[in-house]
Design brief:
alpha/beta; 5 helices; globular; binds 1,3,4-trihydroxy-5-OXO-cyclohexanecarboxylic acid
């Protein structure tokens, strides 16, 4: 089965209790279950990881990126700081979609810049947990179009 890589960055393991007014009540398990269901319906398996460590995420992109059809990432705070994540996606060349629960452009100015924005095929943000499902749908549609 063709696989997709799902990566969750720092502090997203705390979803459900972390700043629920900003990030909602869905847990990471809730989100991953919904993504697995959607992916299975489209004929994809998922490789899902969460890490609080930038280097570990780079290792995961290097290890899995060449083996999967596409990737979906919420880089969390690393969105705004990490050239290393950007470079890892450029190095492996896997199509990647960037998602955020919150609309980063409605928040503090330091959240407005994403180092991944121009590397990603698209961004989805501001829809809470639904951002992930919308992003996955966009990724799957992109892959179908690319396959002709
Ligand atoms: C986030 C937005 C980031 O600015 C923040 O650091 C996060 C979560 C989001 O999903 O809205 O941890 O990526």
């Amino acid at each position: 089965m063709a696989d997709l890589l799902i990566l969750h960055g720092p502090n997203l393991n705390l979803l459900g209790t972390r700043e629920p007014g900003t990030y909602g009540r869905a847990t990471l398990d809730d989100i991953n279950r919904a993504l697995a269901d959607d992916a299975a319906k489209a004929g994809y398996g998922l490789r899902v990881f969460q890490s609080n460590h930038e280097g570990e995420l780079v290792d995961l992109i290097q290890a899995h990126g060449p083996q999967v059809q596409g990737a979906l990432i919420n880089p969390a705070a690393l969105t705004h700081t990490s050239v290393a994540l950007r470079d890892a996606f450029l190095a492996v060349g896997v199509p990647v979609v960037e998602v955020h629960l919150s609309n980063i452009h409605r928040r503090e100015p330091f959240r407005h810049h994403s180092y991944l924005a121009d590397v990603a095929i698209g961004q989805v943000m501001g829809f809470g947990a639904a951002s992930y499902r919308l992003g996955l749908a966009g990724l799957i549609d992109h892959l179908a179009q690319a396959a002709g």
